[in-house]
Amino acid sequence: MGLTITERILANASHKSEVTSGDVVIADVDIVMAHDSTAPLAIEGLYRIGKKVFDPKKIVIIFDHFFPPPSVNAARLHQKVRNFVTEQKISNFLTNGVCHQILVEEFVSPGNVVVGADSHTCTEGAVGAFSTGLGSTDIAGAMATGKCWFKIPDSLRFNLSGLPGKGVYAKDVILNIVGDVGADGALYKAVEFTGDYVENTSVSSRLTLCNMAVEMGAKNGVIEADEKTRKFLGREGKIFKSDKDAVYEDEYEIEVGRIEPQVACPPTVDNVKPVTSVEGKKVDQAYIGTCTNGRLEDIEIAAKILKGKRIASNVRLLVIPASTKIYFDAFNKGYLQETIKSGGIICNPGCGPCVGRHEGVLAEGETCISTQNRNFSGRMGHPKAEIYLASSATVAASALAGEIVDPRGYI
Amino acid sequence: MKTWKFGNDVNTDLITPGRYTITTDKTKLGKIAFIEYRPEFSKEVKSGDIIVAGTNFGCGSSREHAPVAIKAAGVSAVLAKSFARIFFRNAINIGLPLFVCEEIDRIDDGDLIEIDFETGRIYDKTKDLILRAKPLPKFIQKIVEKGGLVNFLRSESYV
Fold first, then answer.
1. CATH code of A360's domain
2. Chain B interface includes A73 (CB < 8 A)
3. Which of A119, A238, A251, B138 has the most CB within a 10 Å radius?
């Protein structure tokens, strides 16, 4: 019986020739990541375990959730983490962007097992790795031992084929899938994306697909590494592929040409509708960025829509590149300048207002359209603010119109 | 113990909104559980109370602040049809007992229930009803028996 890529990577990391779904394995981990929001509890856990980090080179600490600190309490937590980083001689301490983007830019190779104290660590599976989110105590355990226990998940395969229509991007594709499958439709499972759409699309778009696997409850999202991945990473790694006779719990065939621009309506990510059904909804904030859609292609799509135009006077538009590298690239190509000229605000690379802690917090009754991955009540500020999720094209076009619009009229 | 009933897909932003979790202080976290979603919870919850929920409880962020806040508020166990996977691991790791039970629709908000932590037998005193929780996988049971992952790793290695 064949194995899936997820089973192959976990079998390799746990020194087994075969694994079956349901087995519990102890796997070696290649990268252990925590950020400013989750590292403090992980550090406390590690101290209680009473060990040092197993290998400082395999630990990555990133400040992205509230950096620079917006309050005394935030600064105190940063201080605590900085002291830990110095004490444990962790050289991979970074403040140059969203953790998942930094991990793929600088650390992850195909075949790696990556654990991160952030639910969207499923993003990194887009480069052929097994990558999953954990809580702080699990991360403390991985920091101490270099190992982590996993139950081998059943896999779901999403075979995506065809060409997307005008104004339809990876974000629309994954929103469509989350809407169909539901918030717990892939609970505990591996979600594997295959098909010619995936092969032909950019690594950045693949990252967008895997990023939202957790929004259907999945353990990991994964895409086999190919030549594009190798070029993107500049690292080789170890390529694993699903066997032809690999067993999937379920397989979905999706023709992307049938998908229209989508929005996830508040207050749940699986409340997905075609953008045309919510056109005219007034927006107060438009946000392009995050681990979902803060990459160069997203900022480019937005800049091309914004170029030579002015955003509506009732809207604040925030564009936050997911990393310093993307920031420089977007600047060198003139995208940030076009965005600023249109009335947008550029903030430092990081999570921005996605978690509601700084840089664009919402008031009661306000509406935000965002490229992020979650729209839960209270996430970006007041619990009576509303968040709609969409592609960067839909967000940019809506910023111009001052209300949610179909981006196809703006491209 | 009194139950607090919740629906499906209760996410970590509803349990512990991100704006309140820039701290690791467990006492503070105990006071903010469901602060905006169900404000009466933090005021009225009593030590030993039990949360009863639908499917996918704890979905969303990996923030461990969510189960820490629930435990610090005095909750003795969470009973749900299913749990989001990171929340599940987090709760087991910090020693917050979880029980998976598909029949929780039969329990109402405010019912008095007792859970036998050894056998997973749930007795709804208000309705004189017995329900059964699914046993946890053996490996996870070992972590639970140690009181969480920290004690598990202090007392034995993975191998």
1. 3.30.499.10
2. yes
3. A119
The span from the CA of A267 to the CA of A410, in Å, is 27
Interface test with A, best of B28, B38, B150 (most A CBs within 10 A): B150
Print the domain residue range for A306.
Answer: 263-409
Same domain, A57 and A142: yes
On chain A, the residues whose CB falls within 8 A of the CB of B153 are 49, 51, 141, 144-145
Which residue, among B115, B87, B33, has the nearest Cα to A136 in the 3D structure? B87
User: Would you say the ipTM is above 0.85?
Assistant: yes
| B3-155 placed in CATH 3.30.40.10 | no
Q: What does the domain layout of chain B look like in residue ranges?
A: 3-155
pTM of the predicted model as reported, rounded to 2 decimal places? 0.97
- Can you say whether the dihedral through the CA atoms of A371, A372, A376, A381 is positive or negative? negative
**One domain for residues A249 and A306:** no
Query: A-chain residues within 8 Å CB-CB of B93?
Result: 135, 137-138, 141
**Of the residues A202, A226, A254, the one at which a domain ends:** A254
User: Helices (DSSP H) in B49-119: which residue ranges?
Assistant: 65-72, 85-94
**How confident is the prediction for chain A on average, in pLDDT?**
98
Residue A122: HSE in the Cβ half-sphere, 13 Å Cα cutoff: 31
Instruction: For residues A364 and A378, give the distance between their C-alpha atoms in angstroms, rounded to a whole number.
Output: 10
